[in-house]
Design brief:
Length: 450
């Protein structure tokens, strides 16, 4: 009989033994390999060449905390958001030129490895638009003027745009793509002419605009003006046939002297004469005489191209035949030519109606010349009256005529006068017009000088 050993019994009890009689092996389970990362979308999906650094958002799956977004195989600084989203910083150098970049996500080898590549398009930059100027403000200046701000309006300006004056850059402030302002120094408008205004952008932003002209007008020639004046007036100086008055400063050689004289007397018309200490020769322009109740003589004289440069101011002497009251005004007129007189006029107006009136001497036609002209005029209330005691008899230059009151002249308070001037810019027909505040008699004399 066969004997079964205890070992064999054990094998039977436990479910069998190996062929060699050893104990059976337990089965080992197999784990699937980790899934590779995958990209489903890029945001943005494209960029323009030269547009600068940006953040690229990568959407997909199987991302892990140490996933890295790769640009053409090179890792970018990457931020893990979730298993389906990463963010990577793309430097400006990576999109400096147009083309296509290969985007991948790299996990560690034990976490799936590298994803399939997705293309990122870098589009070529459109050509830059050239700046253009549509308007300048101001559009012109006068030679010799002060520094100013030039506002340039147009299109395609950038933060680096520079306004140029004849090719040289000005200190420029950028306001918008359509507006710049620039500081123009006084030295740039010292002389007349035309400046070329351009706007220069960087070469990559359109270059330089077409030029626009900026007019610098020549400074107007200085016209004649009253350089100094003086008046002589008395309360009562009866039966004295002369008077003298002096300028405040020495007169200038080449200027002119204009003299207005009023002498009142109940006896009749006076004969007037003028001399001065410089030996200048005076011409009588007008002598007007009104009638009773107060006989008044008003005259105007002038001396052209006078002597001057004396250390002692010129003294003017006026003589007449006989008088009761008198007033004299002398005015030095600078900026004249050797023959400065354009024209002169005188006018007596009697019997004015009650109330305010206009009294006028002229007109005088002024021809066009290189310099403006100067109108000088004196209007005299010659017959007195109760209305004069409060000073209303002076009147003054009429509003709207462009005349400016310079001085007043009176003799004894019976005869009251206003002296006024006006600039005459060019060809014109001018008159001296004054307001007459009462019904007395007025004599107005006028002269125009170049």
């Amino acid at each position: 009989m066969r004997v079964v050993t205890s070992f064999m019994v054990g094998c039977l009890v436990l479910g069998g033994c190996g062929g060699d009689g050893s104990a059976p092996q337990q089965p080992v389970s197999q784990q699937p390999p980790p899934a590779a990362p995958a990209i489903s979308a890029l945001a943005p999906a494209t960029a323009t060449a030269g547009s600068g650094a940006f953040t690229l958002t990568v959407t997909g799956n199987n991302f892990v905390t140490n996933s890295a977004v790769e640009w053409n195989g090179g890792p970018l600084p990457t931020t893990f958001t979730s298993a389906t989203r990463l963010a990577a910083r793309v430097p400006a150098t990576d999109i400096a030129a147009s083309g296509t970049a290969s985007i991948t996500v790299a996990n560690p080898a034990t976490a799936g490895g590298i994803s399939a590549a997705v293309a990122f398009t870098i589009a070529a930059a459109p050509p830059a638009s050239t700046p253009a100027i549509s308007a300048l403000a101001p559009a012109a200046a006068t030679a010799g003027g002060a520094a100013f701000t030039l506002t340039v309006t147009g299109t395609h300006f950038v933060s680096g745009s520079v306004v140029q004056w004849n090719g040289s850059g000005l200190n420029t402030s950028y306001a918008s793509a359509t507006k710049l302002s620039a500081q123009v120094p006084a030295t740039d408008i010292a002389a007349g002419g035309t400046a070329r205004i351009t706007v220069a952008n960087p070469a990559t932003a359109g270059g330089t605009s077409a030029p626009v002209g900026f007019m610098i007008a020549a400074a107007p020639a200085a016209g004649p003006q009253v350089a100094q004046l003086n008046t002589f007036q008395t309360l009562s100086d009866a039966n004295t046939g002369n008077a003298s008055l002096q300028f405040n400063a020495a007169t200038k050689a080449g200027d002119a002297i204009w003299v207005a004289v009023t002498v009142s007397d109940y006896a009749g018309v006076h004969t007037l004469a003028i001399t001065d200490t410089e030996g200048n020769q005076y011409t009588l322009l007008d002598q007007e005489n009104d009638g009773p109740p107060g006989t008044q003589t008003v005259a105007q004289f002038y001396a052209a191209n006078i002597a001057g440069d004396s250390a002692t101011p010129d003294t003017v002497n006026v003589t007449w035949t006989e008088d009761d009251y008198k007033g004299i005004l002398i005015a030095e007129i600078s900026g004249t030519t050797s023959s400065p007189l354009v024209g002169h006029a005188a006018n007596i107006q009697d019997g004015l109606p009650a109330g305010s009136n206009n009294v006028t001497a002229g007109p005088i036609d002024v021809p066009q010349t290189a310099t403006p002209a100067l109108l000088v005029a004196l209007s005299m209330n010659t017959s007195g009256g109760s209305s004069d005691t409060g000073g209303s008899g002076y009147g003054g230059p009429a509003v709207g005529t462009g005349m400016t009151q310079v001085s007043m002249l009176w003799d004894w308070g019976v005869n009251l006068a206003t002296f006024a001037t006006a600039a005459v810019p060019g060809t014109a027909s001018v008159s001296s017009t004054f307001d007459a505040p009462d019904t007395d008699s007025y004599v107005t004399v006028t002269a125009v000088f170049h």
